[in-house]
Design a protein that fits this description.
alpha+beta; five-stranded mixed beta sheet; 10 helices
Length: 549
């Protein structure tokens, strides 16, 4: 018996036929998605559905564990699961060809349901790509598995004329299809399998390339609109960063976070590419006397303000990296709302919640009072002097100082609805996060790093502290269980930005624990007790352990 006639080789080819069927299904589905909308593709739809249905503690764990790679890990996991299922169906097809093909076909409705139930789904047509992909995968699997269970033409082991193989009645009693022994004792159509597998691979690759080409063409319009954009000079520019706002200590975060280093936490598996020329923002809802529909040019023609504002993610653990400070350019959100006739609740307005909707279906709820109380809440179009990057919300996003991002920082915004907290629960609130979430007073040690081994003598301990919209009044450092010592504060830019601090520590040999705490301008001291990020942000003191040599 040659190696190609051995059972293990046949099983290997069966698994390969399943993988090729899965490849064909995904390629056809993604190509079809570009005729409907790219977000309707099965990987994006299933991944989005997985994110939507994942319990909040698990999401929080994923962000802590994988950071900004959490979505890449999810997509890779989906592909691994699909590949495993596909290979399994290929093996099943050796004995139960029709059942395996039916199983492949049923994967289409699974993706279709995920697509049409997504928050950004606009019609049942979103399910079509997955259905077409399921059909393509089932057809490829059925055909290839048939080559593995059918002897080559002219083989002495082939079925006699008039036999039942391939007929509606199924295999005759005693035939190898469905038997316990399997098809390992009969020949198979090597040439037919090789031709079919090659054709499936080539056709699937062609479909995939076509899909990527169409995707690229659609994205090019958005990329071109951003590349051609020159932001007007702001009518109200930000004040220069004060001298002394950046401490001269190696290892401390820069006062203004470079755009490429700014944290990104969202649920978008695929970053939306929105053409600024086609973008629209609708303002409507309770208490809106004059509904608005604004273009991107409408925003640029308004008064542009520029402000330094620190943003923080509610998923940021004590001492975590999901906080950054940038120079934002945009239009005051309060002026847009006032033009629409909106009044805050303190002035008799009927709406207490502003629901911002993104092009990908995300909804965030912000207190109307907060965005109209005089703070620099913005519809931002620029970041650090450039148009917003796509990853950070191009063409327009919300920025509201003093609130965690999940209740204020809507990226790729396209709709603002005025309503009440009692009438509507936005995305995260429906998943057990708090309705309102002002940023908590926090501080962090940037240097020395945990488990560092500095030399004895003077060691500069330094970091950042933030309490947006309140400001930082004092930062203190404690070594082991000793007394709190007041750190030197860097110059303050504004109450809406973080503030750097430093302390010259006379380090003695041995292991030491350094702990920091901050006091905001209301007099509130950062609490010691550690709390989870859920439901409204982590609390507690940040500590690092070092060993002095």
């Amino acid at each position: 018996m040659t190696s190609t006639e051995k059972p293990w080789f046949r099983r290997l080819l069966a698994a390969l036929s399943g993988l090729l069927a899965g490849y064909a299904a995904l390629a056809v589905a993604e190509l079809a998605a570009h005729a409907v909308r790219p977000e309707a593709g099965p990987v994006t739809a299933v991944g989005g559905a997985a994110i939507d249905r994942t319990p909040a503690p698990v999401k929080d764990w994923a962000i802590r564990t994988f950071g900004e790679s959490d979505k890449l890990v999810l997509q890779a996991g989906i592909l691994v699961v699909l590949a495993t299922l596909a290979a399994g169906l290929g093996l099943l097809a050796l004995r139960h060809r029709r059942a395996a093909a039916a199983g492949a076909l049923l994967l289409g409705p699974v993706g279709a349901v995920a697509a049409v139930t997504r928050p950004d789904s606009g019609s049942l047509a979103d399910g079509l790509p997955s259905l077409l992909g399921g059909f393509a995968g089932a057809a490829v699997l059925y055909w290839l598995s048939g080559r593995l269970t059918r002897p080559a033409p002219g083989s002495s082991q082939g079925p006699e004329p008039g036999s039942s193989e391939g007929s509606m009645e199924g295999p005759e009693p005693g035939s190898s299809e469905g038997s316990m022994e399997g098809p390992s004792e009969v020949g198979w159509d090597r040439r037919g399998f090789l031709i079919g597998a090659s054709a499936a691979a080539v056709a699937s690759t062609g479909a995939g390339v076509a899909g990527q080409t169409l995707s690229g063409a659609r994205a090019r319009d958005a990329v071109s609109s951003r590349a051609a954009l020159v932001l007007p000079r702001p009518d109200s520019p930000a004040a220069p960063v004060p001298r002394g706002a950046q401490v001269r200590v190696a290892g401390v975060s820069p006062f203004l976070t470079p755009t490429e280093d700014f944290y990104r936490v969202d649920t978008a598996l695929v970053v939306p590419r929105v053409d600024a020329g086609r973008w629209r923002l609708r303002v409507h809802g309770r208490g809106v006397r004059s509904p608005l529909t604004l273009t991107f040019r409408d925003l640029l023609d308004r008064e542009l303000v520029e402000r330094d504002i620190t943003l923080a993610c509610v998923s940021n653990e004590v001492g975590g990296p999901y906080v950054g400070n940038a120079r934002w350019t945009g239009v005051r959100l309060a002026s847009v709302l006032a033009e629409a006739g909106v009044r805050p609740p303190s002035k008799g307005g009927p709406a207490d919640q502003l629901v911002a909707r993104s092009v990908d279906g995300m909804t965030l709820g912000t207190p109307v009072e907060a965005v109209m109380d005089g703070r620099d809440a913005l519809l931002a179009v620029g970041m650090n002097g450039e148009p917003l990057p796509f990853e950070h919300g191009f063409p327009v996003r919300m920025v509201v100082p003093g609130l965690y991002g999940y209740v204020s920082a809507c990226k790729w915004i396209e709709d603002i609805e005025l309503t009440t907290f009692d009438a509507y629960d936005p995305y995260w609130v429906a998943r057990d996060w708090a309705r309102e979430a002002p940023v908590k007073t926090q501080s962090r040690i940037d240097t020395p790093k945990p488990f560092a081994r500095p030399a004895a003598g003077t060691v500069m301990v330094a970091g950042v502290a933030w309490a947006q919209h309140r400001g930082i009044d004092r930062v203190e450092l404690r070594v082991d269980d000793g007394p709190w010592r007041e750190a030197d504060l860097a110059a303050e830019d504004s109450a809406d930005t973080w503030r750097q601090w430093s302390y010259p520590w006379r380090a003695t040999p041995g292991s030491h624990t350094l702990t920091v705490r901050a006091t905001d301008r209301t007099g509130a001291i950062q609490p010691e007790e550690r709390t989870r990020t859920i439901p409204d942000g982590a609390a507690g003191w940040h500590s690092v352990v070092v060993t002095v040599g």
